Amino acid sequence: MDRKIVERVARVAHLSLTEEEVDRYSLELKDILGYFEILDEAPEVDSKGFNPVEVADVFRDDVPLMEIPAEECVKGMRLYDGYVRGPKIV
Questions:
Q1: Phi and psi (nearest 5°) for 83?
Q2: In terms of C-beta density within 10 A (0-12 exposed, 13-18 middle, 19 or more buried), how is residue 37 classed?
Q3: Cβ(34)–Cβ(23) under 8 Å?
Q4: pLDDT band per the 50, 70, 90 thresholds, residue 78
Q5: Going by C-beta distance under 8 Å and a sequence separation of 6 or more, which residues neighbour residue 13?
Q6: Beta-bridge partners for 55
Q7: Which of 2, 25, 40, 84 is such that its CA lies 20 to 30 A from the CA of 12?
Q8: Phi-psi region of 33 (alpha: psi -120 to 50; beta: other; left: phi over 0)
């Protein structure tokens, strides 16, 4: 990326760049474009997915369990007719 392009882009973007910034950005943009050229050399893949690991159906059937008895969960709480009562919302 040469200085002329960096200066033109800065002018269009209404940026005022110093000479040092123009030099630095032209070098950095040249490096970035070089990385894209490396990516262009990567082999093409026929499949449409990006994940190398096949994603299968991971859902399972819900099976209700009672691992902790209800009485154990509410032990020590103040109950109202067997229900836990929360704060009043006004």
A1: -115, 150
A2: exposed
A3: no
A4: confident
A5: none
A6: none
A7: 40
A8: alpha
Q: Which helix (H) or strand (E) element contains residue 79?
A: strand 79-80
Separation of alpha carbons 14 and 28, rounded Å: 20
Report the SS3 class of residue 88: coil
Rounded distance between C-alpha atoms, residue 22 and residue 18, angstroms = 6
Q: What is the mean pLDDT of residues 34-43?
A: 87
Phi, psi (degrees; rounded to nearest 5) at 22: -60, -45
pLDDT at 11 exceeding the cut of 90:
yes
Confidence grade of residue 29 (pLDDT, cut at 50, 70, 90): very high
* Element (DSSP H or E) covering residue 73: helix 70-73
Backbone angles phi, psi at 84, to 5 degrees: -80, 130
Given a cut of 70, whether residue 47 has pLDDT beyond it is no
Q: Are 43 and 24 in contact (CB under 8 A)?
A: no
